[in-house]
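Researcher: Let's do a round of design. I'm pasting the structure tokens now; please hold your answer until I've finished.
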């Protein structure tokens, strides 16, 4: 099939490569404009642009895909279908209906669950045990089009946003190739979406990572995993931001202090410091911090941190609001 591919981040790259490998004619790649990055503010190519150039595919980077100039440019290619994977702009109806097979989207959730910008991270934060990828016939709504195919991916107990991203990107690439094959031979049976049983998976921001120690330990631990590697969960210690990269829930019943004492402890208090980790009181249960990072230092295991810094029982970690 003759394909216009639309995508921007790392998640999109595997699908682009899979389409080329499957023998499709990807005649154009549409991606977001380059952006300045780093201290030098050098212009940074999107991951999809880098992949497209490597594969010898023309690249088009409109600021606003809704503009008439962009619509007319896409029409020139007379593609059979458009494949859209995390492009980053809402498509107008002129583009949605431009090709014979419309626009096929690869979405990183089992729709209608987790519509929105960050379904991967929110599935972990929300405590799901299974997620997956859905291919969808795009319509004018936001992730509301008819579902085409689905594939499930298990969420392990130690799954992070980064590891699940990689699994779903790989699964989505294979599912997209299968979807186009079945779309072309007429064996797909589109399925309407019902109401979403989950909240909208809103875009991530750094403020989300600010740990509220009054929340249950299990909830905080999922936040740590879901926001790894960006934007990361964090707390405040000694007027410094301390990023928490890995943690585990410890039952208060297994702790060698009385439950009554712990119930009176302020959430965020370090209740004990051991060789490999320290335990923090939460609103429900204890959290063992196993990997962290402080300003000016690389990520490190907590054992390494404790060898280099004075960190005592009774230290209170905060959200920084009173500093």
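Researcher: That's everything. Go ahead.
Model: Designed sequence:
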């Amino acid at each position: 099939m003759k394909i216009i591919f639309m995508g921007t981040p790392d998640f999109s790259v595997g699908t682009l490569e899979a389409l080329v490998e499957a023998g499709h004619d990807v005649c154009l790649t549409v991606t977001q404009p380059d952006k300045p990055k780093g201290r030098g503010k050098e212009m940074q190519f999107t991951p999809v642009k880098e992949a497209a150039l490597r594969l010898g595919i023309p690249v088009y980077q409109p600021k606003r895909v809704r503009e008439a100039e962009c619509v007319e440019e896409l029409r020139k290619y007379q593609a059979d279908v458009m494949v859209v994977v995390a492009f980053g702009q809402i498509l107008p109806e002129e583009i949605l209906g431009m090709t014979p097979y419309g626009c096929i989207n690869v979405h990183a959730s089992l729709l209608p669950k987790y519509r929105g910008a960050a379904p991967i991270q929110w599935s972990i934060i929300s405590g799901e045990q299974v997620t997956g990828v859905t291919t969808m016939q795009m319509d004018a709504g936001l992730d509301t089009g008819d579902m085409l195919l689905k594939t499930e991916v298990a969420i392990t107990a130690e799954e992070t946003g980064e590891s699940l991203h990689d699994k779903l990107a790989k699964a989505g690439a294979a599912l997209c190739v299968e979807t186009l094959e079945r779309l072309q031979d007429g064996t797909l049976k589109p399925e309407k979406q019902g109401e979403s049983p989950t909240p909208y998976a809103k875009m991530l921001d750094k403020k989300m990572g600010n740990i509220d120690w009054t929340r249950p330990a299990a909830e905080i631990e999922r936040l740590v995993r879901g926001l790894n590697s960006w934007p990361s969960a964090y707390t405040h210690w000694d007027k410094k931001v301390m990023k928490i990269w890995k943690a585990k829930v410890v039952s208060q019943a297994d702790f060698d202090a009385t439950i009554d004492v712990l119930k009176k402890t302020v959430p965020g208090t370090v209740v004990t410091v051991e060789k490999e980790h320290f335990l923090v009181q939460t609103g429900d249960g204890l959290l063992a911090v196993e990997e962290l990072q402080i300003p000016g230092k690389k990520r490190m295991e907590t054992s390494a941190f404790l060898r280099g810094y004075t960190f005592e029982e009774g230290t209170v970690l905060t959200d920084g609001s009173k500093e």
